[in-house]
Amino acid sequence: MMPDTLESAYQHCMRMTRSHYENFPVASRLLPRALRTPVSVIYAFARSADDFADEGELVPAERLARLDGYRRQLDAIAAGRTPGDPIFIALADVAQRHALPLQLLYDLLTAFRQDVVKSRYANFDEVLAYCRYSANPVGRIVLHLAGDAGADNLRDSDKICTALQLINFWQDLEQDYLESSRVYLPQDELAAYGVAEEQLGRRGNSPALRALMDKQIERSRALMLDGAPLGTRLRGRLGIEIRATIHGGLCVLDALARRRDDVFARPRLRRRDWLRVLRRALIP
Predict the structure, then answer these.
(1) What angle do CA 144, 148, 154 make, to 5 degrees?
(2) What letter would DSSP give residue 84?
């Protein structure tokens, strides 16, 4: 492959990363410099596949067909063939350089397919099973890229990533219901607390919904804190990045918990919040 072709593919992925806003920074300056470019490639892959599942006016069959196309590109990498898409040109190089398990990328595609075909979750175990594919591979990929994919690190990373995914669910209740007709609150818990799905579409705050959300916030906090030792085990800039992610997530949970009158008010971290997060991240 010509060097300029590979360089162009990497630049394409970097532009995609810079063009999207996230509550939690992607390939931020806290990351070790050597990780920023490969993390941006992974992000470009995941972001574009997620867009197939969620964005635009495509019917489900078209969304699944595009995700199947991504799977075939991964198959090409696995077979040692040269992909044609810029994202996959860069991804093949990252996978080769870092001995990255391609199964983690297949797992992400499994989650995106599930987004197309499944919109309700019978219980919390089903929600956790979704996080196993949608969120946990991201942390595992970063650890593999950094050469820190030991068993303890992978276990704690899974807890942190699951907590982050849950936080995204709880801050997007109304948006998920109205825009995607998805409900990530477990169906059995909605019934147990006497909360009707329709409340999510009309901002129907109630004591019952508040109590249900308190349960979700606390179980998410417990997961985040259980995984927090990862941030102290990892050294250098990666450790700071992980600690910033943990404290950023806890900060969002605190904001969600404070909104007693409106569980649908989406928290946005402000400059003083990020400064507090950074101060905490700098202390192992």
Answers:
(1) 75
(2) S
CA 226 vs CA 54, 162, 171, 200, 231: distances in Å: 31, 11, 21, 30, 11
Closest CA to 174 of 166, 164, 184: 184
The C-alpha atoms of residue 66 and residue 4 are separated, in whole angstroms, by 27
Are 143 and 242 contacting, i.e. CB atoms less than 8 angstroms apart? no
Q: What is the 3-state secondary structure (H, E, C) of 114-141?
A: HHHHCCCCCCHHHHHHHHHHHCHHHHHH
Residues 117-136, buried b or exposed e (16+ Cβ, 10 A)?
eeeebeebebbbebbbbbbb
Q: Can you give the C-alpha Rg of the chain in angstroms?
A: 19
Burial (CB < 10 A; 0-12, 13-18, 19+), residue 44, is: buried
Does residue 250 contact residue 166 with C-beta atoms inside 8 Å? no
Task: Report pTM.
Answer: 0.89
Which pairs with CB-CB distance under 8 Å and at least 24 residues apart come from 1-5? Answer: 1/82, 1/89, 5/89
Tokens of 124: 């919390």
Q: What is the pLDDT of residue 168?
A: 94
pLDDT over threshold 60, residue 211: yes
In the chain, helix, strand, coil percent, each to 5?
75, 0, 25
Rounded CA-CA distance 78/74 in Å is 6
Angle between the N-to-C axes of helices 207-227 and 151-171, in degrees from 0 to 180, rounded to the nearest 10: 160
Q: Please state, in angstroms and rounded to a whole number, the distance separating the CA atoms of residues 143 and 176.
A: 30
Burial class (CB in 10 A: 0-12, 13-18, 19+), 84: exposed
For residue range 25-41, list pLDDT tens digits in order: 444 667 788 888 898 89
- How many CB atoms are located within 10 Å of the residue 60 CB? 10
